[in-house]
Predict the 3D structure of the following.
Amino acid sequence: MARRIPWARLSVVLVSAVAIALPLVIVIYQAFLDAPFFQPSAKLSLSAFRFVFADEDFHRAVWTNLILAFGMTAIAVPVGSAMAFLMVRTDLPGRSWLEPVIVIPVFVSPMVLGFGYIVAMGPVGFLTLWWQQHLGPIPWDIYSLKSLVVLAGLTHVPMVYLYTSSALRSLASDLEEAALTAGAGTARVALTISLPMVWPAILSSGVLTLFLGFELFGLPLVLGDPQGLLVLPTYLFKLTNKLGVPSYQLMAVVAVVIIAIAFPLVWLQRKLMGATSRFVSVKGKGQASRPLPLGRWRWPATGLMVLWFIPTIAVPLAGVFLRSVVSSWGEGVNLTEVLTLDHFKELFEYPNVVRGIVNTIVLAVVGGGIAVACYAAIGLAAHRWQSRWAKVLDYLVMVPRGMPGLIAGLAFLWVFLFVKPLAPLRPTLFSLWLAYSVVWLAYGMRMVSAALLQVGPELEEAAASAGASSGRIIRDVTLPLVRFGLVGAWLLIFCIFAREYSTGVYLLGPGTEVIGSLIVSLWGSGALDVVAALSVVNILLVAVGMGVALRLGVRLHG
């Protein structure tokens, strides 16, 4: 009897492949042209590569990016690993409220954080002026490469924390308990047993952080631009009109360079993540483990967590909120005399800003829901599918992880320009939704797959034995069992879509304004009052999403 071809599953693979591969193919194709692809005179050439590789700014950007990526990784990995151990394996006080705080930087736009650092710690920042008045000369230069590396490292600690804490939760406690019985202290247990046992997860998070260092855009743009510090994404951003006309071929070359760096790192991180599940020990006993005692170090350890929280979260967010409610700021200004809400009223005087707020809400609520439905369709297509196509699909969903948001937005702009039937969709929210959904495909699929793995195969097998079709099994068994997981995924995607900024930079236009890309645009024009108020609106939107997620019991950790 001939095997039945699973056309529904295959169609999901095909549609996913087109949505993922088409932007990437167009970027690579454009890099090998001597002019924008829409010009009839454009022909195949390596001239764009020669121009970029001979540009001194490109070499400076590469060197600075290397320092930034490795420097922030060197900070984030040890700090994030230590925090994960303290939170998961010890009796640290306040763990229930500390964890949501730790992941805040994941859901706050780096543009907002960067703006907050300028307002708080810039040459005339609130904290800077207070420090000079009470303590003397300030020990930092917010616009230096050193500050950029430190702040990028601190804000990426949550990435390491999420991966390491997830592995530590799966770690059996018998070796730790044996070490304690033999007289080892908690610190020695951490350094010789717990953390070495989850070394693949730590290494994986380090590779991820290194990759993120090459796609970092917001912080380098805000903190590096005043001193002329360039990294590859900001160099790409500044190439837009390098030749006085759209320099698509030059931009494509830089995009290809970033992708060439990113893809091997994504592949390596994936391999390490696969090793993680084989490296940790049996899960059941690990989850029921007794917390390791910190003794007299309980409160000092909590103090160290707070010490990370102050410069990473409290200072920039306080700066943003304070800047949004003062009419002026600087040396000699009494803040109590300049308090105002006029900046928020001013938001409603700009139709594009109002549209941006509405579009962001629609994109996060409705678009996030549709994106999760698409992720669920892809997840269900691969669910318990014993086929080489399932493996193809598994690899496909990881491809967008190698395209930073800035590049993905640029690539999708070219898709809508290149594919004529899609051109009418360019000035609509569909263009942003498609770009967002593809960029965050791997993240969304991870959440959906985690929910699907909770469904025991015996339930679906029982339905199949009773004669139910695969479609009915999905509708009546699988989906009802994973509905809460899908709701949780939607809430987290809501937060991600609400804070996303770099993907929309090149798709920004009348009708497609969103808060994130508007902040980038307004920052460049110097409209700091509007940026401050809009940043607060962005933070509040994300806070609502996180609050609802936590209220419903959604886990923010891995």
In short: Residues 341-558 form a domain with the MetI-like fold fold (CATH 1.10.3720.10). The mean pLDDT is 84.
